[in-house]
């Protein structure tokens, strides 16, 4: 089958949606399909992302004036790198220990001093202002360039099926341009177009676009059952829908975590992922005071200023690892005592990192105000513990886990193998997606696999 994927978020972007489609594209190629990807040229490289086979055809296009200028700057910096700014300028030893970022692969983290420099802040401010004028944000400046390239690819590639990877909503607008061509279109909704965080100025347009998706898409995929129910309530049951969760790799590339990252005399908690106003860990930070032998490490590109301040105030219990290459983050997940997952306010959203955690084979501590899909899954699988997201409840749970860790029984009573969660592996998810593709494309079969590749 010949597949054309429209994906703004694709390597070198390290976003969850980029990882989702990098893995799925890789697995679809392994299943024998010819995959083409229409994406943007964002410049530079991101270490540690999954490698794609040469047989995948990636068509990069100009992202727009602002993002294009940033891509040019990234490429320039790749050719003319600056030496890293390591932390002799940090104010105190405590501050140097409080804020760290990864060094070269296989070595321990080295301290870097936040905040981001003035050039980064100016760039973010300019993009934010420009995003006020573009739907749904600054990524919308790709719309015209992407549409022109899409017309060319539809004629030259002649795909059997087209897929839009949302977000951003721009990819759905491009997917709608396929209607009338006779080629079926699948919309992959990572999140609803009209979400609680959608700016007020774009809410009406988001609703119109989401409604158009359900009128014209041959099939819609969502990441969890609650999102499916929400879309059914909004748009009825005429459009076929399938749950295609985020996932984990059954055979991740080898990458050893540094031996000295975690202290065997502590209870080592690890959180990898982004933090938002709708996904908060304030109660967990306060609960760390329950015992000085409990330490939380956070791997995130950026964190709120309040967390920076907390790290400076308690450097022995809160470490900020900064950005970690994907493979290094996976390696650390496999070494931590407990992996922390924090529920979103919106129950129709499940952080993609939860599925990575399932593949790591370590216990998960899930923090949520109410019972949600993740809590139910953890309890059914005996994969870890569910705790109310308030200081008292978390502190009590952490004391119990510390004692269990010190007595060597932290994993007792849990089932941590990957066999029982294989349905969430990228390998199995690609097979599910293949069934959807065959259905909408009328049973087109994959091209014969290359014997030399096996």
TrEMBL record:
Protein name, per record = Glycosyltransferase
* Statement: the UniProt record of this protein carries the keyword Protease: no
**Enzyme class, first EC level, given as a word:** transferase
Keywords from the named record: Glycosyltransferase, Transferase
This protein's species is Luteimonas kalidii
Keyword Transferase recorded: yes
- Residue span, Glycosyltransferase subfamily 4-like N-terminal domain: 21-244
Gene Ontology molecular function: any one: glycosyltransferase activity
* InterPro entries noted in UniProt: Glyco_trans_4-like_N (IPR028098)
Known EC number: 2.4.-.-
Superkingdom of origin: Bacteria
The record ties this protein, via Pfam families, to: Glyco_trans_4_4
């Amino acid at each position: 089958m010949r597949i054309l994927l429209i994906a703004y978020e694709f390597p070198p972007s390290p976003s969850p949606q980029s990882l989702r489609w990098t893995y799925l594209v890789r697995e679809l190629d392994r299943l024998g399909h010819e995959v083409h990807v229409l994406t943007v040229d964002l410049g530079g490289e991101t270490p540690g992302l999954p490698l794609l086979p040469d047989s995948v055809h990636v068509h990069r296009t100009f992202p727009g004036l602002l993002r294009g200028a940033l891509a040019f700057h990234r490429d320039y910096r790749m050719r003319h790198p600056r030496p890293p700014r390591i932390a002799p300028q940090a104010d105190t030893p405590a501050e140097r220990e409080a804020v760290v970022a990864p060094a070269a692969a296989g070595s321990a983290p080295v301290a870097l001093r936040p905040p981001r420099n003035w050039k980064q802040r100016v760039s973010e401010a300019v993009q934010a202002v420009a995003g006020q004028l573009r739907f749904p944000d600054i990524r919308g400046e790709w719309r015209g360039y992407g549409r022109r390239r899409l017309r060319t690819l539809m004629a030259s590639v002649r795909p059997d099926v087209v897929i839009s990877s949302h977000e951003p909503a721009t990819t759905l607008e491009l997917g709608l341009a396929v209607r009338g061509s006779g080629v079926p279109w699948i919309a992959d909704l990572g999140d609803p177009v009209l979400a609680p965080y959608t700016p007020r100025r774009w809410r009406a347009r988001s609703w119109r676009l989401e409604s158009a998706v359900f009128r014209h898409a041959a099939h819609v995929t969502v990441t969890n059952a609650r999102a499916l129910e929400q879309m059914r309530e909004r748009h009825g049951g005429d459009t076929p829908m399938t749950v295609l969760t985020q996932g984990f790799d059954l055979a991740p590339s080898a990458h050893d975590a540094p031996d000295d990252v975690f202290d065997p005399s502590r209870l080592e908690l690890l959180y990898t992922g982004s933090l938002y106003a709708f996904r908060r860990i304030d109660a967990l930070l306060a609960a760390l005071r329950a015992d000085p032998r409990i330490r939380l490490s956070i791997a995130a590109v950026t964190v709120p200023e309040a967390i920076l301040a907390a790290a400076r105030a308690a450097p022995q219990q809160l470490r900020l690892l900064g950005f970690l290459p994907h493979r290094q983050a996976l390696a650390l997940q496999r070494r931590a005592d407990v992996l922390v997952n924090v529920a979103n306010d919106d129950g129709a959203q499940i952080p993609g990192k939860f599925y990575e955690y399932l593949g790591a084979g370590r216990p998960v501590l899930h923090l949520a105000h109410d019972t949600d899909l993740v809590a139910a899954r953890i309890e059914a699988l005996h994969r870890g513990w569910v705790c109310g997201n308030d200081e008292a409840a978390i502190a009590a749970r952490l004391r119990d886990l510390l004692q269990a860790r010190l007595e060597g029984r932290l994993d007792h009573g849990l089932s941590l193998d990957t066999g029982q969660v294989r349905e969430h592996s990228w390998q199995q998810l690609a097979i599910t997606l293949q069934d959807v593709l065959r259905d909408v494309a009328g049973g087109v079969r994959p091209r014969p696999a290359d014997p030399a590749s096996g």
